[in-house]
Amino acid sequence: MFEKNQTELRADICEVGRRIWQRGYVAYNDGNLSIRLDQERVLATPTGVSKGFLKPDMLVIVDMAGKQIDGHLKMSSEILMHLEMYRERCDVGAVVHTHPPYATGFAVYGQGLEAPTLPEFVVALGGVPLAPYGKPSTPELGETVRPWIQDHDVFLLQNHGALSLGGDIYQAYYRTETLEHSALITFIARCLGRDTPISADEVPYLEQMRENLGLGFPRECLTFQPGSRQPAATGAGRAANGDDAALEALVAKIAERVVRQMRRS
């Protein structure tokens, strides 16, 4: 996401909206998507629009206090839940909220998906806790996730749906796919008689794979170059994109510190 301009990010939200609608993860005007533009602004889907028919100019921009600052349509009241995720996790660049049927079925049943039933599930998600019910359209909805937010990327919301976090909108979406696929397999296994978790002595190997892929916690924060509203890549992303931007940001920070010291002396 770091090299993309806002036009491209708007297109990404529309594409992911189309995918979640086509796969049946949302119906009617359900669900909402957002991308962190910088430290102050979030690009998000509006209220009252099917995610399968989004257009780039329909999206709204909201500040971190929950005030709409751009867009001709009205922001969704559930943006408050998204903002809570961004405030609590500095590494999160996008949020996807959906109602995938099988995963939401477990949420209505009152059970998270934390058992290590599939290698892919353990490596990609680690586990998916169930957050207690929160009143829709209120800050309470995001607050229910707080006990698990620092060490999980995906959550079931009791009697509501699912919430996935990612470094970008596609990572958050793919985590939603993995969640629903795993929920479906677990449901089928239980219909056949039982679901059998992976043995406890095999789980550490999968957890280490997860760590090796950079999916462990805590994670490096998204950073913003001084004077820029566009995120700069961190960690592995810096190596892939070149070190020039990171070097410039470091030089600017050092210069800023020197100026402050000179003013104090």
Question: If you had to describe this structure to a student in words, what would you say it looks like?
Answer:
This protein has 265 residues and is an alpha+beta fold. It folds into two domains: 6-212, L-fuculose-1-phosphate Aldolase, CATH 3.40.225; 233-264, no CATH class. 42% of the residues lie in helices and 14% in strands. It has ten helices and ten strands. The protein has helices at 6-22, 79-88, 101-109, 119-125, 140-143, 146-149, 169-192, 203-212, 236-241, 244-264; strands spanning 32-36, 41-44, 60-63, 68-70, 94-98, 130-131, 154-157, 161-166, 223-224, 231-232. Strands 4-3-2-1-5-8-7-6 form an eight-stranded mixed sheet, sandwiched between helices. Helix 4 (119-125) runs antiparallel to helix 7. The protein is globular. Mean pLDDT is 89; it is low at 234-247.
By CATH, the architecture of the largest domain is named: 3-Layer(aba) Sandwich
- CATH homolog superfamily of the largest domain: Class II aldolase/adducin N-terminal domain
Number of strands: 10
How widely separated are the two ends? 41 Å
The number of domains: 2
Element-by-element helix/strand order: HEEEEHEHHEHHEEHHEEHH
Which descriptor suits the 3D outline? globular
Largest β-sheet summary: 8 strands, mixed
- Rg from alpha-carbon coordinates: 20 Å
CATH topological fold name of the largest domain: L-fuculose-1-phosphate Aldolase
CATH class bucket of the largest domain: Alpha Beta
Instruction: Provide a count of the helices.
Output: 10
Average pLDDT works out at 89
Strand order of the largest sheet: 4-3-2-1-5-8-7-6
The low-confidence runs, each spanning 5 or more residues with pLDDT under 50, are 234-247
Strand content: 5-15%
Helix content: 40-55%
Q: Which structural class should the secondary elements be placed in?
A: alpha+beta
